[in-house]
Design brief:
alpha+beta, Rossmann fold, Elongation Factor Tu (Ef-tu), domain 3, 7-stranded mixed sheet, 15 helices, binds guanosine-5'-triphosphate, Transl_elong_EF1A/Init_IF2_C
Amino acid sequence: MPRKVNYGLDYDDDYDDNYDEYYRYEVDENAETPSQKETIKHSVWRCSICTYDNDETMSSCDICGVLHGPLLNNSIYDKKRTECYQADSLRVGGCPIVSSTVVGRDEAVKVSSMRSDSSNLSTEKGKHNRLDEINILKNIEVGPPAGSRTSDNCSASVPEGWLDHMDESSVAVNLRSSVKRSLSLMPKERNVMVDDSSSSRNGGEANSLTSNLENISFAAKSGHSNDANPGRANSRAQYKPEKWMLPEKAEHSLTQLNLAIVGHVDSGKSTLSGRLLHLLGRISQKEMHKYEKEAKLQGKGSFAYAWALDESAEERERGITMTVAVAYFDSKRYHVVVLDSPGHKDFVPNMITGATQADASILVIDASIGSFEAGMDGTKGQTREHAQLIRSFGVDQLIVAVNKMDAVDYSKERYHGPNLLDAIDSFQPPTREFSKPLIMPICDVIKSPSQGQVSACGKLEAGAVRSGSKVLVMPSATIATVRSLERDSQACPIGRAGDNIAVSLNGIDGNHVMAGGVLCHPDFPIAFAKHLELKLEFHIHHAKEAARVARISSLLDSKTGKVAKKAPRCILAKQSAVVEASQEDDIVILQEAICVEEFSKCKVLGRVFLRTLGRTVAVGIVTRIVEQ
Ligand SMILES: Nc1nc2c(ncn2[C@@H]2O[C@H](COP(=O)(O)OP(=O)(O)OP(=O)(O)O)[C@@H](O)[C@H]2O)c(=O)[nH]1
């Protein structure tokens, strides 16, 4: 099944800031029913975003993925963090390090369905049934082979000059299956993925890490200075890659292209993706028959193609995508990683996870009357919001695919445009930072607790890793050794910038590896901070943290980017501003520190989104890390 990437519901609508951030229930010996007893025997912490009471063992919210104190109850973390803020330059060699043996690799991943708290997501089920399946099949035709096949019903275009000024970026998920295997990033699954039967034991050695840590230093300067971490900035530029890190030309004939499929709910993203995969032979006729049969049995015949990607029972029941599904196909020029994103507004955080991984995007627009307008609606529609988000993630290549043209009297004569595959092949290859120090934002962690195995999954943003490489795992600031790598579910010797990989780690406690963290080069640690200056809440790569804007430093002239007004009282729509996000008298910003970088140093770790009440209110970049 497709790999699923999920950051949970967007519960901003229910946001209540009168929460207790962390509290402990007392055991009530007088509780009358077993369930009463059960509910009160655990210590819990309440999520600052969705107010869900999480078990204390959860390092991030079970519902929405917001990080609680990273590595909660972890003395190493607490110690390190305290030290980070106390010292200008911290050597972590003296910290107690738990080392463990990680063996084997996880072949199988279990998926559990999402919590049903999302019952407020009503889809107009009736409307899906209106479709005549034959219409879809009739209107999506196969053209000549070898890269020019496409959906005729779907007009594709790459708008000229779209987002010219934006920078490239990406993050991604590991390719654990060739076409269809699913992996939910619900925090539960993120932390416990068990199929020990398939893990291979090879006796990876437990490493004593103390010696490795001797050489790590953290620059944690105080004050409002641009030079908060001067050492890091300079040395990154001076980094000299080793020869093995650079790809040889013949090694990969096809460049990997991470392609996010975005657009308003029900615009046909999954159907389009499923159809494409089927036409390209990635979904067999037999599998397709199975989807058709099952979909029909549930009275959802029109969703047969979507079922190839929306594979959880809840997604199928509701007829909506809730998590990002990942699938693959090859075009003439690219090994395309399809990131089929959810369109429903409540799952925008999941869509963001997909968007952060994208090199390019297809914005699917529903041409049918009423649906087109709904998507474009400035306050409720996701066509605009997705376009804006994808742009602010630095995705500067976009295909606008106009779908459901059969619903508006599609006429071949009237609609022109390249076919979808040709349009995909017309994308410029993404630029990869092979020769920079390693950066891999962790999108997913797969653990097999009984065997002590842990793998960090994500897209390599910069640099390269291979078996035996030492990596610094942030925010736990722990050194681990790469045991093995997987790409497309296959073991691979080297992972390079742009690759979606699963990195199996030796010599680290699984609790020290978390989604939202980053694997980086031991000599080039990325920052870990909570006081930032933004060029405008907080979705950042795979981490999410509650924040408050305390001070708007200045309004910027939208054309020149220069300061137009200092300390304005508010920002209006379409205005640009420099903002300090903070809480408690300008001292703190985020409730917990996160892995972050200034945009000028690492784009993917320096992009931010302000979302509140279920809407994206601002997008921006980190201009300065203001550390204590
Ligand atoms: N008439 C018509 N219906 C289509 C077409 N493509 C998709 N649909 C229908 O639109 C409905 C929604 O399709 P999906 O593929 O689930 O849409 P989606 O954009 O992936 O939905 P979300 O991911 O939940 O936002 C289904 O009933 C599809 O059969 C099309 O080209 N023409």
